[in-house]
């Protein structure tokens, strides 16, 4: 079943967007603190502390996502805790 962009935005909170990459975090995610990144048809999950990636992003997008994550690690961890408590997530500045 396809999810409309409107529904997707409500169910999967977007926290940043840059260079065609969308960063989001699920409120009911399990496991280590992580966020997800979408670039076109490519999807990946990025563990915040270890910077490990599960899934696939093209090399350039992967480098940008990891750079962005390093710059915003404290805010990402704050959002992780907010998501786990089912609180509203805080937008994070894009990579420029």
Describe this structure in words.
With 96 residues, the chain is an alpha+beta fold. The chain has one domain. It has helices spanning 5-11, 59-71, 73-84; strands at 14-18, 21-24, 34-39, 42-47, 53-55. It has a five-stranded antiparallel β-sheet. It starts with a helix and ends in a 12-residue tail after the last helix. The model is unreliable at 1-9 (pLDDT under 50).
Features:
globular, 3 helices, alpha+beta
Average pLDDT, rounded to a whole number, is 88
Q: What's the story with the biggest beta sheet?
A: 5 strands, antiparallel
> How many helices?
3
What's the count of strands?
A: 5
* Range of helix content: 25-40%
Helix-strand topology string: HEEEEEHH
**Ends: how far apart?**
35 Å
Widest beta sheet: strand line-up: 1-2-3-4-5
Beta-strand content estimate: 25-35%
Taken from the alpha-carbon principal axes, the silhouette is: globular
Oligomerization status of the protein chains:
single chain
How many structural domains are formed by the residues?
1
Q: Low-confidence stretches at least 5 residues in length (pLDDT < 50)?
A: 1-9
Class based on secondary structure composition and strand pairing: alpha+beta
């Amino acid at each position: 079943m396809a999810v409309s962009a409107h529904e997707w935005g409500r169910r999967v909170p977007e926290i940043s967007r840059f260079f065609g990459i969308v960063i989001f975090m699920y409120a009911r995610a399990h496991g280590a603190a992580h966020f997800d990144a979408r670039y076109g048809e490519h999807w990946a999950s990025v563990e915040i502390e270890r910077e490990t990636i599960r899934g696939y992003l093209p090399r350039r997008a992967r480098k940008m996502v990891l750079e962005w994550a390093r710059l915003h690690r404290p805010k990402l961890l704050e959002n992780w805790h907010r998501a786990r408590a089912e609180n509203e997530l805080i937008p994070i500045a894009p990579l420029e």
